[in-house]
Write a structure and sequence with these properties.
The complex is a heterodimer of chains A (about 60) and B (about 475). Chain A is mainly α and about 60 residues long. Helix content of chain A is about 50%, strand content about 0%. Chain A has helices spanning about 5-15, 25-45. The radius of gyration of chain A is 16 Å and the shape is elongated. Chain A starts with a helix and ends in a 16-residue tail after the last helix. Chain B has about 475 residues and is of the alpha/beta class. Chain B has helices at about 15-25, 30-50, 55-70, 115-120, 160-165, 185-190, 225-235, 275-290, 310-325, 325-330, 335-350, 350-375, 405-410, 415-420, 450-460; strands spanning about 5, 50-55, 85, 125-130, 170-175, 190-195, 215-220, 265, 295-300, 380-385, 395, 405, 425-430, 440-445, 470. In chain B, the strands form three sheets. Chain B has an eleven-stranded mixed sheet with strand order 2-4-3-5-7-6-13-14-10-8-9, sandwiched between helices. A two-stranded antiparallel sheet of chain B has the order 1-15. In chain B, a hairpin with a 7-residue loop joins strand 11 and strand 12. The longest helix of chain B has 24 residues, at about 350-375. Chain B is globular, with a radius of gyration of 20 Å. Chain B starts with a strand and ends with a strand. The chains are: A mainly alpha (about 60), B alpha/beta (about 475).
């Protein structure tokens, strides 16, 4: 997933983070990787399930 | 190349069970045992760097107190007088708990974490705090070293605990496990490690990494010792809402029942992909032995499990960003570069992306459930890790010509599905790879059925020599 450096700045501003210029490339790369993961999950069909946000292991 | 040593029958080499048998017969005092462990720490710490804090004087006082209690006939059980170590994410009253980070430098809690309180109640003697990867988010744990190969990382994030137990610098230790962090360092260091069911053990007072995936559990020299540790810490904590109101099992009573009648699932998919061929061979030999010892081996396909890594990447980054939200804004410069980047990236993801990952997680959980239910499995057996320890400084590794992947992905690949499902999972040593490094067999069970997981592990251990082998240090 291609993420523009400006997007990172915008997202960082929205999240109230101050990501220094020298670190933006690192964060950009990590964020791209996470968006790749999300794209994979969206394509998997698994996102039809109810979210497991309130987690309980009593299922067997 | 790793070097192997033979047990010398030194006191610090005892398992919990062996030590307890001597203590209850008054053949061994808690003080003698504690002194032996502290001497061993002095000997090996310059090599393995497993501890961040050693509390020798305090431990000896506690051991003397234990001896007085035992002498008066007040024997608390198999942990009474037994020296243990704690990963430095467990809060300990009056003892620094820095979670491997400058962010927590100088932090001294006022109270013990609930698992620590329960261990102390059971009579355990805390000898020190062990090295963790920064905030338990990582698998290299500098400066700790693998007990079997000092040029290599100890695995993580409970790397100090793994290395300390393997080096006989404590009898057992506590770790935490969000994606692999008990089982990976246990496997890498040739010892046992148990991640209990989500909700089985309180996490109150343990620094969180990612709430919905975090577990706490023991690392020990034998399966039975894992059971002894679990018995001491298991059970609902009214002040930890993630703990479940489920009766605590009898973890030791069924240990010796053997494998007959148990259905042991062997995955066809995912768990034997992207694995070093020599590790693959060792694990398959171990599984074959389970069959020869009376277990019924059943091949199963597990739907959706191949999405475990993408899911845990997202959950880990976002939940950790939530944990560190305030300190990241105020003290970002105190974080290590690696963790800081992940926290920043996790802070920038959309909430809908987090929900997507939780929905996929529900699919993985359902996939594991259907595999267990359709084949009526008691346990599922897999490799713990696809490769052994890696050299310090390496960030990527490739397996059999594949595209190099981050070390953390290799180490979490087979372990993380059970953080997502919440099932109990144990690693037991099952041999050595071509470089002489230990290999682990993972045994995952039904939720809250740690007793069966331990039974299978104990049955394997009873007919193999691996858990008794020691690194040459």
């Amino acid at each position: 997933v291609k993420i523009d450096e400006c997007d990172v700045q915008l997202l960082a501003a929205l999240a109230n983070l101050d990501v220094p210029a020298g670190r933006r490339a690192t964060v950009l790369e990590l964020l791209s990787g996470l968006y790749d993961d999300i794209s994979l999950l969206e394509a998997s069909g698994l996102d039809a399930e109810e979210p497991a946000i309130i987690f309980d292991a009593r299922w067997l | 190349m790793a070097l192997m040593a033979v047990r010398q029958d030194r006191l610090n080499e005892l398992t919990i069970k062996e030590a307890a048998a001597r203590i209850i017969r008054h053949e061994l005092s808690a003080e003698e045992l504690c002194l032996a462990v502290l001497e061993r720490i002095d000997d090996v710490q310059p090599k393995i760097h497993a501890y961040v804090t050693v509390i020798g004087e305090q431990a000896l006082e506690a051991a003397q107190q234990a001896d007085r209690e035992i002498g008066r006939g007040h024997y608390r059980g198999p942990l009474h007088g037994v020296p243990v170590a704690l990963k430095d994410v467990y809060e300990t009253a009056g003892i620094p708990t820095e979670s491997g980070s400058r962010v927590r430098q100088g932090y001294v809690p006022l109270e013990d974490a609930e698992p620590v309180r329960r261990l102390l109640e059971a009579g355990a003697i805390v000898v020190g705090k062990t090295v963790t990867h920064e905030f338990a988010f990582g698998v290299t744990c500098p400066p700790a070293r693998c007990a079997w190969d000092l040029d290599c990382v100890p695995g993580g994030s409970s790397g100090g605990s793994g290395s300390a137990v393997a080096a006989d610098a404590c009898l057992a230790a506590m770790g935490t496990d969000t994606g692999c962090s008990v089982r990976n360092p246990a496997s890498i260091n040739g010892i046992c490690g148990l991640k209990p069911t989500f909700g089985r053990v309180s996490k109150r007072g343990v620094t969180p990494l990612a709430w919905s995936c975090d577990h706490v559990g023991p690392l020990a020299k034998s399966v039975e010792d894992c059971g002894i540790m679990l018995a001491a810490i298991a059970g609902r904590d009214p002040l930890d809402v993630t703990t479940a109101d489920v009766a605590v099992g009898d973890y030791l009573g069924s240990l010796s029942k053997g494998l007959k009648g148990l259905r042991i699932g062997v995955p066809r998919n995912y768990f034997f992909e992207s694995i070093k061929p020599d590790v693959d061979a060792v694990v398959k030999e171990a599984i074959g032995l389970l069959g020869r010892e009376g277990g019924e081996l059943v091949e199963v396909t597990i739907p959706a499990v191949e999405y475990s890594l993408p899911v845990i990447h997202v959950l880990g980054a976002v939940e950790a960003a939530g944990v560190h939200r305030n300190t990241l804004r105020v003290h970002a410069e105190r974080y290590g570069d690696g963790l800081r980047g992940v926290l920043e990236a996790g802070s920038l993801l959309l909430a809908t992306s987090y929900v997507t990952a939780q929905r996929a997680r529900a699919g993985i959980k359902q996939g594991l459930r259907s595999a267990f239910e359709s084949a009526n499995l008691d346990v599922l057996v897999t490799p713990t890790c696809p490769l052994g320890p890696i050299a310090y400084g390496e960030e990527f590794a490739n397996i059999a010509g594949e595209v190099p992947a981050p070390i953390i992905d290799h180490y979490a690949r087979y372990a993380s599905p059970f953080n997502l499902s919440g099932q109990p999972a144990l690693t037991v040593p099952c041999g050595f790879d071509s470089e002489g490094h230990p290999v682990g067999l993972q045994i995952a069970g039904r939720p809250f059925d740690e007793a069966t997981v331990l039974r299978v592990g104990h049955a394997y251990e009873s007919v193999t020599p691996w858990h008794g082998m020691r690194a040459a240090l």
